[in-house]
Every structure is written in structure tokens, then in C-alpha cells.
Design a protein that fits this description.
The complex is a heterodimer of chains A (367) and B (550). Chain A has eight helices and 20 strands. Chain A is of the alpha+beta class and 367 residues long. Chain A folds into two domains: 5-230, Rossmann fold; 238-352, Nucleic acid-binding proteins (OB fold (Dihydrolipoamide Acetyltransferase, E2P)), CATH 2.40.50. The longest helix of chain A is centred in the middle third of the chain and has 18 residues, at 167-184. The chains are: A alpha+beta (367), B mainly alpha (550).
Chain lengths: 367, 550
């Protein structure tokens, strides 16, 4: 039942600015697909091209193989949830949800039935006859969602739907959205700049920057095996260290950061050897070594105890600041000014080429 | 991306509106310009302008106009500013009533103020006679410069008051508190914080007052006597019994337009440069004052408000007085109402309501469409529309009336003498205000609401009619009521365009005053004032607020 979306080499210009220049994507049927990127990266523009509020200035977008470039928005049969919900303030909750069905000339009793059904799905059946103005943000969001999916759209589009909610409600709503999407099984394209939200709801994520797709992958791979430094620093926190790929014997490699040498066995075979690289280490991928001299020598500058974890802010000899996260244990915190050594969990860290544009990790090898 | 067919619907609409404005705004104005430089023998020259600026008899009217306008504007600004500040900062009993009284005094046509003050302070005025008998003198009454300034100031300060009051409402009290905590005294606070922050509003509203006063002819006509201002000259050149000269009148029109144009741009320039955007989380609150401050505040606001509504009170009282010619017998009677309501027809009153309603209907429909086009369908065409529809803002009513008579007195556009010409002129005079307020209303509607409707399968037309229009309705409706009140008190173009069949209330009042039928004039005025008050109450009910922006 669900449809596939094929975005083929599309171009978008605003005046003389080319915002998107030849972007391609394949979204699978029934998939929860997220466009993630900093503001201004073109993700909303792309979404609005799919629904038809923005023209497609080059390339084409296909739904199940059918080109939709010239189909007007109101004939595209896509549901959209807007950032500000866009609830019609002069209509009751029921009339808001029935609006799309009326436009499709659905018989009255069926409208009634479908509205009641969807109200139950989004869990606001008790608000059916209320006017929307006095309702909370979360409730308005549920109306918007119900209104968009009650028309049985082929595609559901969501433009930062949670950004106007407070933190607690945001978590609650994102679980609700994911669950409802599973339940109805519509191909969904979701736009957000919030990486945690993207990781939580998506089947797959496309990370965008400056109109260009950086990586398309599952949340887990996006986080653990970022395709380049942009992705590794945009998703979660990464410490980027200058390093050297000293030798590379068929993927079994020696990497050096300063005087700290370690072995890796998942470097791409063709990445060469004896070249500068960028080593990306997430704060939780460090091992603090206080016994020996092995590791990167650093000085503890400050620490924050956060219950589950303890964050240490340390500085290398070269003056680079590094954040380290350790599970809190019963020992005392390491005092400020203490000199320690940092080792890395070699199977988790990522290595990029010198300009950070390409990962040197061979994802086929179990590290 | 938009359906081509739908796009055409808006394009056709924009084009149709453009044609309307070309016919009813650009063409008459162009004609005036042309006539002002066209000599009787068919040559082109600036002789009429030379004539104006070379004879003191003529150019002195311009000087007079500037004098009364500048003085009245200054007085209005000071009164309005103090009034607004006192009412916002000191708790005054009955402040809501005062607010309504002030607004009402503003909404009645200025010339009624002139005529009412003549009843009180004129040669034979009520107060003049009392003073004369007490001091045994022969006061000549308040005419000329001082009379005009009195009427204009009391009539115009409410405009400044309303604007400043609105600005003060947006001024967060924490600014005051911050200043106080930094060691500012009350007076320093007013001088260093409040006045600078409301200065843009003060300037903008003062310039509105200036434009309004500068082009008003009814007041100086009635109370000016020998003191001739420019609009009076214009009117008499056009309508006078002797020496009327079409081309010369056209040249005078051009001079007025030039002056208002300069003022308009000045206001725009100042308005853009000095605007702070503020929105108060915690507005200033009126507090109980004590001692001499409290007494002064009460005396000031009640005195000024009383002076402001004095014309209305006078008119209402005199409408129940028996008259013999221009003087009163001292007896109470309903005779005046019988005179204006009982005989033959009451078309004067029905005309006023009908024309007002018809004009409002047109203004609202066109205004909503135009503002929608200029906000949501930006294009070269709607850009032109945007500029063109603001034109009437700078054209004084009398100039519009004159240009209409020139333009529409022969086939195929023979409209002069009809009700239609009056309705269209009312419509055009009010158009810029309606467009401005509708534009503000549309600006507050997020485009995504319309997009939501379209994504749910609605056509653009359906979206506009079912979503956009209903969402605009509340704001548009309260705007329409304000327009209605303004239109039923319009004089300056109606007085030029009316015929005996299309006479409206304001015209009738003016005519009766000129004929010294004060009883009838008062009765007509009372009906007008009551209509305004009822409409105002309706406005408060519809808009659910106590503030007014005009």
C-alpha cells in the first residue's frame, strides 16, 4: 500500500541563489525518513518541493514511479504537519479534521466515522467539539497530525512539528508520532534540526548541509559510523584530533596521535599509509589512564558530576580542549590540575582523511 | 507551485482593481494636473501658479493655513500627550467614560465644533452674553485665528491621545522600574524614558493632525470670518457665486496635493527612522495618586475632556431649544426634530446610512482583496496596486470632490449628481485606511494555515473564502465600523458632490448652519452624534477592546 518516493537530481533556485543543486534520494515505502541539518541547509525547501509549495526547478520527484512535478499541491494527496500546527482557529476540532475529507467529497457518515476513528488514534476523542484556541500545544499538534493522516495521504510530511513544544512534551509527542506512524504505515518525511529527535524517531536519516546530502543511513550508523567530520560533529559531540596513519597493512593499521600509538583493524585497505588524518573520538570513547604513561597526555581543567556520568574538561599540551565522559563510580572525582593520559576505544572511534570529507573506516570489518 | 488557472483568477482580479483605480483615482488627478497648466486658449503654461504666488491676497491664505495648522498641531500634541500619560499612569475614576467621550469628540466633523463654539463663544454666544452682562462690556466673540485654533486643537488632540495611549500600553513597566532603580525621579523618568520612546508615535500622529487640519475647510469657513485659509480660498474659487475659475481651482488643488505629498513622505521618513518595536509583558498600570498631584490630574483630564465634548453637548442641548431664526427663545421643544423628520421626506438621513453602508461594503470587499493580493501574491502588478491604492491618503477630500466633478461630468462617465459618485468618493477616501488595517490583519495570519488547507485538497479560491476571509473577519468587521463612523461624518468631498437629491447629514448640517437654521442643524447633528455613539459601542462590543486606532 505504501509508496516509494524517488527524488531525482532536483534543483531549487530562489532568484539567483541555487539552494539545492542536483539532489537525489530514495525513500522506501512505509519508511520514517528524516531530513536533518542545521537551519538554512535546505531541508524545509526540499520538503516543500515534495508537497508542492515550492516549484521544482530541475530534476524530478516521483511517487511510485509517477512524476509529480506538475501536479498541483491540492491534488497530490499528501498530508502535512506544520511547525506552528496551522490549525484553523475558526473551526472546531472535528471540522478541522473533517476539512480534507469534505474537499474529497467523502459521504457524511463516512466522514463522521473516520474522524471518530482518527481522534481515537491520536487520543483526543474527548476534544472533538472544542474550539482549538484554548487547547494546549500538544493537543493542537495531535489535531494537526490527525488532520493530515485522516485523508489517507500517500505521503505524510512533517516540518519541525515538535519545535514549539516544551522539552517534556516533545519527548512524549515524538514517541506518539512514531507509534502512530507505525500504526498507519504511511511513508513519512520528517524535517528537524534536532539530532536527538531524529535519532529517536527515524528509520533512516539524511543529514544535509548547504543543500547537499552528507549521509543517508540508519540512526545507529549515522551516530557510530559518520561519513565525514560534518556528520560526526553535527550528530552528537566529537573531539577531532590531528593524527597520522603510520602504516596500513591490508586494513590492519597503526594510528598515532602525538606520541600515542594504537592499532586499528578496520581501516579501508586503499587508504594508503604515512599520511595525516583526523581522528574523531566521542567523549565516551576515551579511557582515562592514571597508571601508566600510555595515551594522550592531558591536564584536567574542570569536571561536572551529572549522576550517571561524569564529564571532564581536559586540555592537551598543545592547548586543545577535549571533553571526556566516564561512568560515575564511587571514587573521588579527579581533582582539577591533575595530569592524566587518555587512551581511546579503538573499535569505536572514527578516522577521516585530512580535510575531514571522507571516512577511512571499513564498515564491512568488525572492529 | 500553483495551478495556472488559479493564478489567472488572481491576476484578473488584480488587473480589474487596477483598472478601477486608474479610472477613479489616476484619471481625475491627472485631469486636475492637466487643467492646472492648460490656458483658455489651449496653450500650456504655469500662469495660474504665478498668479497665486504673486498676489498677496492669494498666497496669504497659505500663510494663514500654515499658522493655524502649526499652532493647532502643537496644542493638540501637548494636550494629547499629557492626557494619555495622565490617564495611563494615574488612576482616575470614570476613565473609561472619559476615553469614550474623547473618541466621540474626535469622530464628529470639525465644522460642527466650529458651529457649536460659535453658539457658546460667538458674538451672540451663550457664554459671551453672560460675560458681557457680568462685566458690562461688548466682547466680540471668538472668531478668526483664535477661534480656528480653539476648534482644531480640541478636535484633534484626541487623535494624538489615542496614538500615544496605544504606545504607552506597549511600553513595559519594567523600563520605568529599571529607571527608578537606577535613581531616576518621576519627572526625570518621564523626560528621559517615556517621552523619547513615544516620540515617533507623537511625531506620526502630529503629522496626521497636521494633514487633517491643513485640508479642512468647514471650520475656517464658519469661524474664520475675515481670516481666510487656503481650503476656503479653494472652495470659494470652485463653488463661489462670483469669479469661479476652473483652471485656477485646479492649480490650487495641485498646490495642496504637493504640500500633503511632502508631509506624507516626511511622516513616512520619520516614522521609519524612529520606530522602536516594543511589546509589553507587563504594561504600565494606573496607580492611585495622592494630594496635589491627584487633584491636578483630575482637574486636567476632566476639564480637557469636557471642553472636547462641549460641541456635542451644546448641539444636543440646542437641538431641544425653540428657535426663531438664528436666535433662541429659551423654551424647550421638539419642534426641530419635527421639522427635519416629519415633512416630505427624510432622505437626508436615509441617504447618509445608505451611502455609508454601500461605501463600506465596497471598501471592505476591495480592501480585503487588495491587501491579500499585495501581501500574498506579490508581483509587479500588485506592487503598482499597492502604491496606487495609497494615493487617496494624500488627497484632501475637497480636491477629490473637485477632481471627480471635472472627470465625471460628461459621457461616457456621466456620474455627477448621482449617488454613485458620492459613494465612490467615500469609498476611495476610506480605502487606504482599510487596506492598511487589512494588510496588518493578513500579516498576522501564518501562511502555513493557508498551505494546510491546500495540502488538504482545497483549491486556492476555497482556501481564500473558507480559511483566510473567516480568519480576517473579526478584525475587518471592527475596522469597517470605524470606517462607517468616519464616512457618515465626511463633509469635504460630499459638500462638493452633493445635489438636493443626494444630500447627506453632514451636508445638511452645514447648509442649515450657513442658513442660520441652528435648530435644524442641531437636530441633524444630534442624530449624527447618536449614530456615532451607537456605532462606537458596537465597535467596542465587536472588537472586545477599549482602544481605538483610526
Amino acid at each position: 500500500m505504501s509508496v516509494a518516493i524517488k527524488i531525482d537530481n532536483v534543483v531549487k533556485r530562489f532568484g539567483k541563489d541555487t539552494v539545492i543543486n542536483g539532489l537525489s534520494l530514495d525513500i522506501k515505502p512505509g519508511e520514517f525518513f528524516t531530513l536533518l541539518g542545521p537551519s538554512g541547509c535546505g531541508k524545509t525547501t526540499l520538503l516543500r518541493m515534495i508537497i508542492g509549495f515550492n516549484t521544482i526547478d530541475g530534476g524530478q520527484i516521483m511517487i511510485d514511479g509517477k512524476v509529480i512535478n506538475d501536479i498541483p499541491t491540492n491534488k497530490r494527496n499528501m498530508g502535512m504537519v506544520f511547525q506552528n500546527y496551522a490549525i484553523f482557529p475558526h473551526m472546531s476540532v472535528k471540522d478541522n479534521i473533517a476539512f480534507g475529507l469534505k474537499n474529497r467529497k467523502v459521504p457524511k457518515d463516512e466522514i463522521e466515522r473516520r474522524v471518530d476513528e482518527i481522534l481515537k488514534v491520536v487520543k483526543i476523542d474527548h476534544l472533538k467539539n472544542r474550539m482549538p484556541q484554548k487547547l494546549s500545544g500538544g493537543q493542537q499538534q495531535r489535531i494537526a497530525l490527525a488532520r493530515a493522516i485522516v485523508i489517507h495521504p500517500e505521503v505524510l510530511l512533517m516540518d519541525e512539528p515538535l519545535s514549539n513544544l516544551d522539552a517534556k512534551l516533545r519527548t512524549e509527542m515524538r514517541n506518539a508520532i512514531k507509534q502512530i506512524q507505525r500504526q498507519v504505515g504511511i511513508t513519512t518525511v520528517y524535517v528537524t534540526h534536532d539530532q536527538e529527535e531524529a535519532l529517536a524517531v527515524s528509520d533512516r536519516i539524511a543529514v544535509m548541509n548547504a543543500g547537499v546530502i552528507q549521509q543517508v543511513d540508519t540512526p545507529k550508523n549515522i551516530y557510530q559510523r559518520p561519513a565525514n567530520i560534518f556528520v560526526s560533529t553535527f550528530i552528537g559531540l566529537s573531539n577531532i584530533l590531528d593524527g597520522r596513519l603510520e602504516s596500513n597493512d591490508n586494513g590492519k593499521a597503526v594510528v598515532r596521535i602525538g606520541d600515542y600509538r594504537f592499532h586499528m583493524n578496520n581501516i579501508l585497505k586503499d587508504s594508503g599509509a604515512n599520511r595525516p588524518v583526523k581522528v574523531s573520538v566521542r567523549p565516551e570513547e576515551f579511557i582515562i589512564n592514571r597508571e601508566t604513561q600510555e595515551g594522550i597526555p592531558v591536564t584536567v581543567k574542570s569536571s561536572v558530576f551529572l549522576g550517571v556520568d561524569t564529564h571532564y574538561f581536559v586540555e592537551t599540551r598543545e592547548g586543545q580542549e577535549i571533553e571526556v565522559i566516564q561512568n560515575s563510580d564511587l571514587d573521588e572525582l579527579i581533582p582539577d590540575g591533575t595530569r592524566i593520559h587518555l587512551k581511546v576505544q579503538t573499535h569505536k572511534i572514527n578516522v577521516f582523511n585530512e580535510d575531514g570529507s571522507k571516512s577511512l573506516i571499513d564498515r564491512g570489518v568488525r572492529a | 507551485m500553483t495551478d495556472k488557472k488559479r493564478l489567472n483568477m488572481w491576476l484578473v482580479l488584480a488587473f480589474a482593481i487596477l483598472v478601477l483605480f486608474l479610472i477613479f483615482v489616476v484619471f481625475p488627478l491627472g485631469l486636475i494636473l492637466y487643467k492646472s497648466i492648460l490656458m483658455d486658449d489651449g496653450t500650456i503654461s504655469f500662469a495660474y501658479f504665478v498668479k497665486f504666488f504673486s498676489k498677496k491676497y492669494y498666497w496669504s491664505t497659505l500663510v494663514n493655513s500654515f499658522k493655524v495648522t502649526i499652532v493647532s498641531t502643537l496644542v493638540s500634541a501637548i494636550l494629547g500627550l499629557i492626557m494619555a500619560y495622565v490617564l495611563r499612569s494615574v488612576r482616575i475614576r470614570g476613565s473609561r467614560l472619559l476615553n469614550i467621550l474623547i473618541v466621540i469628540s474626535y469622530l464628529s466633523p470639525p465644522f460642527i465644533g466650529a458651529y457649536a463654539w460659535i453658539q457658546l463663544l460667538g458674538r451672540n454666544g451663550f457664554i459671551t452674553r453672560i460675560l458681557n452682562s457680568i462685566f458690562n462690556t461688548q466682547l466680540n466673540g471668538i472668531y478668526g485665528f483664535s477661534g480656528i485654533v480653539l476648534v482644531f486643537s480640541l478636535q484633534s488632540f484626541p487623535l494624538v491621545y489615542m496614538y500615544i495611549s496605544g504606545a504607552l500600553k506597549n511600553l513595559d513597566n519594567s523600563l520605568n522600574e529599571a529607571a527608578e532603580s537606577l535613581g531616576c525621579s518621576v519627572f526625570q523618568r518621564v523626560r528621559k524614558i517615556i517621552v523619547p520612546l513615544v516620540t515617533p508615535t507623537l511625531l506620526a500622529s502630529s503629522l496626521l493632525v497636521f494633514m487633517r487640519v491643513f485640508s479642512d475647510f468647514g471650520t475656517p469657513m464658519l469661524i474664520g470670518e475675515g481670516y481666510k485659509t487656503f481650503p476656503v480660498l479653494l472652495y470659494s474659487q470652485f463653488m463661489g457665486e462670483v469669479n469661479t475659475d476652473e483652471h485656477y481651482a485646479a492649480a490650487l488643488c495641485v498646490i495642496v496635493i504637493a504640500i500633503t505629498l511632502v508631509l506624507f513622505f516626511l511622516q513616512k521618513y520619520i516614522g521609519n527612522r524612529l520606530t522602536y518595536s516594543m511589546s509589553a509583558l507587563k504594561p504600565m498600570e494606573a496607580e492611585n495618586a495622592t494630594g496635589i498631584r491627584n487633584v491636578l490630574a483630575y482637574v486636567f483630564v476632566y476639564l480637557v475632556a469636557l471642553l472636547a465634548v462641549m460641541p456635542q453637548l451644546t448641539v444636543i442641548v440646542t437641538s431641544f431649544l425653540e428657535t426663531r431664526g438664528a436666535s433662541y427663545t429659551g423654551k424647550f421643544t421638539l419642534e426641530n426634530y419635527r421639522n427635519i423628520l416629519m415633512p416630505k421626506n427624510i432622505s437626508t438621513i436615509t441617504n447618509t446610512y445608505l451611502y455609508g453602508l454601500a461605501a463600506i461594503l465596497m471598501v471592505v470587499v476591495l480592501g480585503v482583496l487588495i491587501s491579500y493580493l499585495t501581501v500574498r501574491k506579490k508581483s509587479f502588478l500588485t506592487g503598482i496596486l499597492d502604491t496606487l491604492t495609497m494615493f487617496p491618503y494624500i488627497i484632501p477630500g475637497s480636491v477629490l470632490g473637485i477632481s471627480f466633478l471635472y472627470a465625471f461630468n460628461k459621457q461616457p462617465l456621466l456620474l455627477s449628481g448621482t449617488a454613485i459618485i458620492l459613494i465612490i468618493s467615500l469609498c476611495i477616501r476610506r480605502m487606504p485606511y482599510t487596506i492598511r488595517s487589512s494588510t496588518a490583519i493578513i500579516g498576522q495570519i501564518s501562511p502555513s494555515v493557508e498551505e494546510a488547507a491546500i495540502s488538504l485538497g482545497a483549491t486556492e479560491r476555497k482556501t481564500f473564502l473558507r480559511i483566510t476571509v473567516p480568519m480576517m473577519m473579526a478584525g475587518v468587521l471592527s475596522g469597517a465600523i470605524m470606517s462607517w463612523i468616519t464616512l457618515i461624518s465626511e463633509l469635504s468631498s460630499s459638500i462638493i458632490l452633493y445635489t438636493s437629491k443626494t444630500q447627506t447629514l453632514t451636508v445638511a448640517i452645514y447648509v442649515e448652519v450657513i442658513r442660520s437654521n441652528f435648530g435644524n442643524a442641531a437636530a441633524y447633528s444630534t442624530i449624527l452624534t447618536l449614530t456615532s455613539i451607537l456605532s462606537l459601542l458596537l465597535f467596542f462590543k465587536v472588537s472586545g477592546k477599549n482602544d481605538i486606532s483610526v
